[in-house]
Records
---
Amino acid sequence: MLVYCDTSALYAVGNRDDEAHEAAAEAWEALIGGDRHRLVSTNYVVVETLSLAQKRQGLAAVRVLRDALEQTVEVTFVDETLHNAAVEDCLRTRRRGVSLVDCVGFAFMRRHGIHHAFAFDRHFTEYGFKPFVKPK
C-alpha cells in the first residue's frame, strides 16, 4: 500500500517532545516493518520537515532525520505542473490554514492514486484522505 508521509508525522517521529511522538513512533514502526507499505513524499515536505527540525532541535537532528528519510521514504521532486496545480488549489479553497506544502501533497496524492497519509494534520482527512493508523 502506498502511504504519503507528511511533515506533521515525520517530525513527530523524530521529536520525543512532540505531543504526537508516541503515536507517530508506533505507526512508523508498523510502516517500516515488513514490505507491505511503500512510503512516498515530496521534496517540499522534506524541506519543511528539515527546516522545522533545524529551527527547533538543531543540525544534529537534521542529520538524523535526513538519514532516516533517505533510507525509508521515496521522495519525488515537485514538477512545474504539480506546483502550479497546487497553487491554484490553494488559492481556490481560500483557506488560510492550509499551506502550499499541504496542497502539493493533496495534488500529489490525487495524481498517484494514494488514499492513505501518515499525517497528524487534520486537513488530510478534511480533503478526503485516510490517516494511516497502526494496525492492531
Note: Residues 83 and 134 are 31 Å apart (CA to CA).
---
Amino acid sequence: MSDHPTEQEVLGYADELKNWGRWGSDDELGTMNFLTDEKTARAAALVRTGKRVTCGRPIEFGPTTEAAIPPIRFMISSGEGAAATGRSDALDFFGLAYHGMTITHIDGICHAFWNGLMYNGRPASLVTTREGAKAGAIELLRDGIIGRGVLLDMPRLLGTEWMEPGQGVLPAHLEAAEKAEGVHVEEGDILLIRTGNYKRRLTLGPLGDGGPGPHVALLPWIRERGVALLGSDTPNDVLPHPYPNIEWPMHCIGIVAMGLWLMDNANLEEISTTCAELSRWEFLLSVSPLRLQGGTGSPVNPIAVF
C-alpha cells in the first residue's frame, strides 16, 4: 500500500481491487454486503442520549460557481393567494441535478463506468436514456442504510481550519486520526471523512478552485477494512485531479471495481462539534435514499444519533 501511488499503480487498482464475483455474479450491492443485520443491531446499541445531528447540507437555490445546473423551485401555489376564509394551501415543485459538488447525495452503483463497464462487469449500456438504470440503481438501497458511523476529523488532527484544494487524505491520516480519537474502522462501518471543505465554503463563499478529498491511495485501505459506505464533505475525489489519465479515480475505481458506495458533499460541521463535545467518534447513522426507479443516485439527509 503506497501513500503516493503512481498513475500506473492507480490504473492497476482497477484490477487489483476488484470485488467482481465476490458476492456472486449477480450481485449489485457491492460493499453494502458488509453491512449485515447483525452490524445494524450492534450499531443501534451505540445510542445513549438520543441526540440527533444532521449530516446533510441545505439545498440552495440560485446559480453558483459550483453548480452548472442549480436546483430550481417553482411555487404552484403560495400563501400570497390564500383565501381570507376557509382552506388554502401552498404547493411547490423542485428540480435537482444532485450529482455534483453542492448537494449531499449518494451515488448509485450505476453512476460510474470504466472501460464501458459498471460494477461486476455489467455493460454501461444498461443505463439508458429512456428508462434510466436497469442495473445498479439507487432503489437497491430502498430499505435504507443504518449502521455504525465513524467520523475521522482531519482538521482536528492537523490543527487547521480546513484542508486546502488539491490536498488528499491518505491512509496515514486515517490511522493517525483513529489513534487520536480512540476508534478503529471495522467491516461494515460507514466511514465519514471530514476535510473542513464545507466550512471553507461557508466562510469564503462558493469556490471554483478545486478542493481537498479522499485520495485514491485510500482504496486499498478501504477494501482491507471492509468499509460499506464512504462519505465526506467533498465530492470524494481530490480536485484538481492528480492523474491526467484517470479523472475521478475514487469513483471510477471505487464504484466500478470495488462496488463501493459513496456519499458526496456531506455537512460534517455540526457532527464534528458534537463528537468533540462528547468525546465520541462513533454513532448510529441512518441514511435513506429516495426510491427513484432507475435513479443513478439520490439526495439524502443523513442523521447521526448519539
Note: DSSP finds eight helices and 15 strands in the chain.
---
Amino acid sequence: MFELIGIPPQAFFGQLLIGLINGAFYAMLSLGLAVIFGLLNIINFAHGALYMMGAFVAWFLLQYFGLGYWPALILSPIIVGAFGAVIERTLLRRLYHLDHLYGLLLTFGLALMIQGVFRYYFGSSGQPYTIPPLLQGGVHLGFMVLPIYRGWVVAVSLLVCLATWFIIERTRLGATLRAATENRALTQAFGINVPRMITLTYAFGVGLAAFSGVLAAPIFQVSPLMGADLIIIIFAVVVIGGMGSIMGSILTGFALGVVEGLTKVFYPEASNTVIFVVMAIVLLIKPAGLFGRAHA
C-alpha cells in the first residue's frame, strides 16, 4: 500500500503518532472547556493560559522544591485548580446572570494578563523539562520506534477523558451537577450547596488543563506562549464536537489530531488549516456540532 502512494511507512506511522499525541491534548483541553461550558455556561478563554500555568507549576516544583514529574502530576492540577476556584468565586460568579459574551471577555482578559506576567519574567523561550527516567526510551514495533513517553501521554489522556465522561454522565455526582445547572433552586431545596459545586466544577475543568500542561512539558517545553498556540484550535474542536458535549470533545479531539497528522503526510500545505476547514463544513451542515443538541 505504501509503495502505491509513494510514502515511506516510517513517515506515515510517525505522523499518525504525532496526530494521536496532538489529539490527546486536544481532547483533554476541549474536555475541560466542555465541562465548564456544559455545567456552568461559561466560555473559558483563559483555558490556554491555565494549561500553561500547569506546565510552569510543574517546572517550579522541580526547580525550587526538587519535586519531579510524578508529584507534579498530582500537585499541579490541585494548585492551578485552587487558583481557578478563586477566579470563579471572585470574578466569574458575578457574571452568571449576564450574557455569555461577558464571561468570554473576562476570561480573555485574564488570559492576556496571566500570559503577560509569565512572559515578563521568563521571556518567550521555552524552559526544558526532563522526561522521567521510567518513561524514557522507546519500543521497537517493527515498522517504527514508539517513544515510551508519547505512548504514555496518549494512554493516560484517554483514561482521564473516559473517567471524566463516566463520572459526569453515569454517576450520581454527575447527575447532581447537571441538575444544579438546569434547576438551581430545586437542587438547593434538597440541601445541596450549589455554589460550592459550581466552584468545584470550574476548579476541576481548570485542573484538567493543568494536568495537560504537565503532560506537555517534556514534549513541547515550558513556555508562556504554549497555551496561546493551542486555544484557538481547542475552541474549534469544541465547536465541531458540540458545545458542552463531553463525549463529543473526546472523540473530536482525538479524531482531529489524527486528521491533522495524516494531512501532513498527504497534503502538508493544508495541515495548519484543515481543522478550521472541518469546522466550517460541520457548522454549515450541523450548526450545533456533531454531538451537540439542536437547542444549544
Note: The mean pLDDT is 89.
